[in-house]
Specification:
homotetramer; 197 residues; mainly alpha; Tetracycline Repressor, domain 2; 10 helices; elongated; DNA-binding
Chain lengths: 197, 197, 197, 197
DNA sequence: GATGAATGAGCTTTCATTCAT
DNA sequence: AATGAATGAAAGCTCATTCAT
């Protein structure tokens, strides 16, 4: 038991370290020795936890998607309006982009663009279902309650994912004149206006 | 003269071939020999046209941004409402995503995610200014005419870029049940609603 | 412990093999694969010991300079006249040129002529200080004892280094009609005459 | 006739430009395109004058040796003592090292160390005979007149060539605290003392 | 479980030389 | 004589992965 716990902990610490490095430097520019070195661990041992670099990358996206989905789940269970939920989701996303930028950056810089890495194992977004599912629940609820217009789910999902991701990308490029939180009001209003009934 | 023309033509054919390969397989998975082979050209000669792989990638993003900007420029000069312009821009973008998917994919899968490649030479989005400038002109005009709400430009720009890019990404992932054109109506309406006065 | 020893040994065997190849064929004509092949070692592994070809070349000159310096140090501690010391130094140098010609040749054909390789890391002869220091000690002692004329150190050092190196170069070119040891008498007498009080 | 003259002039301008570049950057680091570019000439055309890079390097050493030999020839014809001749030769050499350093550097950095380049065509120092011959004449004359001790020519030649070359090398390394002319007195005295009867 | 030396295929880039124009 | 695009072999170096210890 102790053993298994310890192994699980180490597993997670690998995920978090690799997440940081992949986000900061890109998947291909981050080497397994880089990750092992930052963890004061041997490369050989790292392979005892993850059987390949690709598998590691896939586990990271699942983990990240789960963490983000969890936070949105909390919002979904709140008894507030769709407008307020949108505000909270945007807030969560941008706060995360500020506090743990590596998670959001991972979506943008690793998951988005290294298709070959995720092809075998993450087909059709199964590795990000944790996040998508919650957005879907939010959207269905709000449509059912009559607050949001009934439309194709992907039209709405693309808005969330693309808009929020796009803003974080702009932030990362250093082109946004203000801090990312500054845009929470504007963006949540824009999203609400776009989707409202 | 003849010489220079021929060289310019070859230069462009390199750009287009590299664009396709980078988009399809990613920047790091596409090798210079791959590009040269597809062009029936020697590796060495390719370097007579572009002094490094990074420089080539930068020239491609400039080229792509220019082509896309050009198309939006046409819309900007039309005497139609902002709502109609939004529709046309979305249409252009999605049509392009269908007919020349490599250009849009290049934005998403190469430019967006390989920061280190564009760091020296494309600082602060200068390489995509062709595209951004036109969106800016569209937005300023529509605000001036009172059709769109006056808000931070980046809030609006992120909506365009992120939303459209996000949809194309979903298409590329194979998760969209319908063809990309199907979403033109929804998405242009959502954008208009988000930004209208 | 064992591990470290083994690694140190392998490191030295790389230095010696590379020394031979660089001396025989020149720095630029000797490739890393050449060195690895002669060592029955993979190219990648060689880079586990020396991070670049230039660094390897620098380590070799330090090593060589140390070995040569060591031998002269022995002479410096002997209780003999300056004239006899000069004879011994010339003898050591020429004997080495005969028995381990690669060391002397390395000075002449690699260190002397590939400035760009040694620019970063061996500025101002720090990599050959092992040898220079001993010559300096010899000279200072002999001046102090009144056997040699007091003059600018570099005037004396250039005589040693240039003269001995020049002779070995001539030998290497195949223009010397006699074996190199034949010249020990002449050259040590000439040096002594040049420097004596 | 005009044609031939023009060609000869261009030939010499190639030699001088290549001499500078080879001396400054080394033989292997200097490319044919580099040389052509500095001459505002096409690479193809450069090959009309010299059939290979190696041949060019050989012609340069012949040219350089000739120029240097010429200057020493003047000294040889003077009616002065051997001691004075030595002084003048050292002076010529160091003055040249200061005014046209590329010639001396070429000896040290190109000729000395790229044996493979000069193997076919410059066997046994035939390409530097212009210089050697004059030193030989000087030495024979001075021995005949009884001013210098009769000894193996190479023992004497190595002294000249090695000592002078060594000093210029030290200068090039930036380790000499004074200008190179400062050493003329010391060095010519040392050489004279070494060789005198 | 842990180590890190070893592998070797594969990458980007260079450059002497040629040759059609 | 002059051009410079084209060739292609070969270089230095990287890194995911394995395996003996």
């Amino acid at each position: 038991m102790k053993m298994k716990e310890k192994k699980a902990l180490k597993r997670e610490s690998i995920i978090q370290t690799a997440l940081q490095l992949f986000s900061a430097n890109g998947f291909h520019k981050t080497t397994i020795p880089d990750i092992a070195a930052k963890l004061h661990m041997s490369v050989g041992n790292l392979y005892n936890y993850f059987s390949s670099k690709d598998i590691l990358a896939q586990e990271i996206i699942k983990y990240t998607s789960e963490v983000l989905g969890e936070k949105i789940r909390v919002v979904n269970t709140m008894d507030i309006s769709a407008k307020e939920k949108i505000y909270k989701i945007v807030e969560i996303y941008f706060r995360m982009a500020k506090d743990k930028p590596e998670m959001i950056e991972y979506f943008l810089r690793v998951y988005l663009s290294n298709r070959e890495v995720f092809n075998d194992g993450c087909e059709g977004m199964v590795c990000v279902s944790g996040f998508i599912t919650e957005i879907m629940i939010f959207f269905d609820d709000a449509v059912a309650s009559g607050e949001l217009r009934n439309q194709d789910f992907f039209s709405a999902f693309g808005l969330f994912m693309g808009y929020l991701g796009g803003m974080v990308f702009l932030k990362g490029e250093g082109v946004l004149p203000k801090g990312i939180e500054y845009y929470i009001d504007d963006i949540s209003r824009n999203i609400y206006n776009a989707l409202k009934n």
